[in-house]
Amino acid sequence: MYLVIAFSFFPVFYPQQNEVDFAGKSIITEENTARQVILGGDPFGIKLYSKGVMVVEISCVETETGKKYPAKDAGIEESDIIMEANFSVLKSNEELSEIIASSDGRGVTLKIMRGEEFYETVLYPVVDDQGMTRAGMWIRDSAAGLGTITFYDAENMVFGSLGHGICDADTEEIIPVEKGQVLSATITDTEKSVKGEAGGLRGYFNSDIIGSASVNCELGLYGFCETDPTQGRKLIEIAPKEEVKEGEAQIYCTIDGNTPEYYSVYIEKVSYNGEKTKNMVIKITDEKLLEKTGGIVQGMSGSPIIQNGKLVGAVTHVFVNQPEKGYGIFIENMLEISDEMTE
Predict the structure, then answer these.
(1) C-alpha distances in Å from residue 66, one per residue of 88, 107, 183, 192
(2) Catalytic residue among 286, 303, 317, 338
(3) Residue 104 appears among annotated catalytic residues
(4) Helix, strand or coil, per DSSP, at residue 292
(5) Any catalytic annotation for residue 164?
(6) Domain spanning 60-135 has what CATH number?
(7) Which of 25-29, 64-68, 195-199 has the lowest mean pLDDT?
């Protein structure tokens, strides 16, 4: 799911400041040894291409002699990733469809990834009752959607977002990334969340490139910036997870246009031993945000959570039956992934 949030501005007092220059652009930084990043809150659009093609459904093929199940007979299962066909690396649905269509009764050798394991099988396509060669499976090679940037690491030119992985809509499995382009986005409308049904942000992709996606995992979507992310922004200090407490906080997100705003929230619970993406329970308390969105909506995932002037985490999930509430992830968990990218 994707999420966004914002809150009322609150005063922050900074220690003595110096100016430093990134790529010729001046930004304000604090004299502080604690780690700092550039605050996100920006909406983005992503089109993500998987490694190989994902099997999203196994189906039957109606032939003149009855129902056939070529994919099932070959041992193929939903959520399998087909990496190669006849020893050629697959980059799109179309490539696999062409190989199957031209098989002419011959078996097609497939290399498949299931979880972290690889195996080979031979698929024997069949001709359906309309004269078309079929494999008995539905496949997908890409996904697209809106989300929110959590932070930019200007020193390493990387970004982190979402706080959870992008999953296939049918299989609910995380899509392994082959490539993906991350573009800025403009939010044009919001469908409010109501009890039992999560709403969502609506908008369009812009032509401005933020960067390229490199990692799609349980803890979010990460990539390398292709343009300077500083843009005169202030750096924000990272809060260790031990500093995160129950109490007042804010989220920073965009629910209209492309300019983030602050919105008030309350951290109701902090957990150090639970799931890596569900470290906090937050409740939206900002009346303006509740009026506009009904709480947390799809597209808000990745919205930064700030407490006592420090970045503590990001919004990850909504409680469908209590849309004013949701989960958040510790920022330290997200930084572990982005740091691994630059090692």
Answers:
(1) 32, 20, 48, 47
(2) 286
(3) no
(4) helix
(5) yes
(6) 2.30.42.10
(7) 25-29
